[in-house]
């Protein structure tokens, strides 16, 4: 039996082709591949800890840099899956709008992705709960949900109606001020929208148990490529990483070194890395350094927006 240590170990994961994961109804085929890249992350035991100390592209992280205060591993995993779900929505939105197609939403409520210790929701709500009513009212966006609570004061009571594993419950919570911001009161949760995106043609994105928001850019490129006649892959194996915002901004991620190693092993020829507007310690700069170190022929491309990635691929000469 191996006892867990108060650390996490991350190591290179895989580069996974997106065409089998993403299906746009009657979408166009591609000659090459877009690939998402992953990092393998797990709780350290004495053996994995020592291995990580010896191996160049394995990293050790103290537990409090991965889990939030009093957050369980189960809550962390649920939070990562919710972040992945939000990333998929953004990717679909960005790709369809770029293709000139309409995007509509059906708002269903909010998902709790974190509960803050010592606040009213602590011990009552859990990560993964779906809140769909406050004081019997439904809202059409999370912004309205937040606005409703912001009009309340410490000591005010609200009735929260939520679902957990198909069971619906209503609880009363008394608002409390935040230690970090005594002018604000709340119930103490972090949230993401629970909404259904409605697009034509329909799209399916099957990610199973892959968590986190870091595949957003590559999702959006694969979806857009299936929507448009011109094949952006031009026959290349293209890997990459980066979050995607609703406006198409590409954001940084963790584990860029391990993702470069994973992409190189999978035979990627191009790799899109978040440029972070050229900052000195950007994902892109670290990726270039890692690529040199492992002597890969893979080309690293700095990206700040989805449009930049599309522009680069449109100008790329087809693979001979």
TrEMBL record:
Domain of life: Bacteria
EC number from the UniProt entry: 3.4.21.53
SMART domains: PDZ (SM00228)
Domain Lon proteolytic: 209-316
Domain PDZ: 80-166
Record-linked PROSITE patterns: LON_PROTEOLYTIC, PDZ
Keyword vocabulary terms for this entry: Hydrolase, Protease, Serine protease
Residues at the active site: 214, 259
Pfam families: Lon_C, PDZ_2
Record field: catalytic activity: Hydrolysis of proteins in presence of ATP
Family, as annotated: Belongs to the peptidase S16 family.
Protein's UniProt name: endopeptidase La
